[in-house]
Amino acid sequence: MTPAATRPKAIVSWSSGKDSAYALWEVLRRGEIEVVGLLTTVTDAFDRVSMHGVREEVLRAQAAAVGLPLHVVRIPYPCPNAVYEERMAAIVHQLRAEGVARMVFGDLFLEDIRSYREDRLRGTGIEPVFPLWGRPTAALAREMIDAGMVAHLVAIDPRVLPSRFAGRRFDRHLLADLPSTVDPCGERGEFHTCVSAGPMLRAPIPVEPGPVVERDGFVFADLRLAGAPPPP
Predict the structure, then answer these.
(1) Distance (Å, rounded) from C-alpha 228 to C-alpha 207?
(2) Cα(26)–Cα(11) distance, rounded to whole angstroms?
C-alpha cells in the first residue's frame, strides 16, 4: 500500500449502483489513492439520484455506511446539458481547491462515456480513474455477487429488458435469466441498480421494496429504508 502521506486524494463518482460501489472497493483494496468523499447528482424535483431514481435518504444511508462525506450536485428537471456541465464544473473546481486530485468512475467499456469524462476533467487538475475498465462483464458481475454485494435493479429500459425485472436482486439467478442481448452489468443502460450491502459498506442498509412505476420511458422500482413511512 502507498504511504498515506503520498497518496493523492480522490472523490468517487457515486451513482448509488453496483459499478461505482465496486470501483470504490477496488481503489480501497489497492490503497494507491486516498478516497475522501462521494459525488452524486440528485434531481431536485424528485429528491432522487439522477437516472437511477434512488431516494435521497437511501443515498445518504449509503454514504453513512461507506463512512465518507457525500457531495450532492442538485440539478433541475429536465436538465439542459449546459446546466449540468456548469454545475459539475463548479463542484470540480471546489474539490480541486480542497486538494482532490483524482475522480474515480465505475465505467466498464463504453469509449464515448470515458472520453466525455476525460474531456470534462482535462485541465482541471483532477485526473479520472477507471479501476474496472475493460474487465469482462460476465466475470465481473459474478465477482461482485461472490464478494457479498447486494443490489437491486431500480431502473429498467423496457425497450431492451422486460419490465418484470424491475426490483429484482442482482444475483446469479438474475444473470441466468437475462436475455443474451443484455450486458450482465447493464453497461449499455439496460438497467441500473442500488447497492444495500457489500464489502465497501460497514454495515448493510435495511431496504424494502416500494411501488414500480413507469416514467419518461423507463421503469423504476422504488426502494425505501425499512421502517420508513410511505410517501404521501
Answers:
(1) 9
(2) 13
- pTM of the complete model beyond 0.90: yes
Name the domain count of the chain. 1
Nearest-angstrom CA–CA distance, 74 and 36? 20
In a domain, 110, yes or no: yes
> The CATH number of the domain where 209 resides is what?
3.40.50.620
Q: Which residues of 158-175 are buried (b: 16+ CB within 10 A; e: fewer)?
A: eeebeeebbbbebbeebe
What single letter denotes the amino acid at residue 71?
A: H
3-state per-residue secondary structure call for 71-91? EEEEECCCCCHHHHHHHHHHH
Range of the domain at 28: 6-225
Asked if residue 232 belongs to a domain, the reply is: no
- In angstroms, the CA 158 to CA 160 distance is 5
Q: Return the ∠ at Cα 73 (arms to 70 and 195), rounded to 5°.
A: 50
Question: In the Cβ-directed half-sphere of 100, how many Cα atoms lie within 13 Å?
Answer: 27
Cβ(210)–Cβ(230) below 8 Å: yes
In whole angstroms, give the CA distance from residue 60 to residue 70.
7
**Ordered mean pLDDT values, 10 residues apiece, the chain (232 residues):** 79 98 98 98 96 97 98 97 97 98 98 98 98 98 98 98 97 98 98 98 96 96 85 52
- Residue 218, beta-bridge partner list: 215
CB neighbour class for 227 (10 Å; exposed up to 12, middle 13-18, buried from 19): exposed
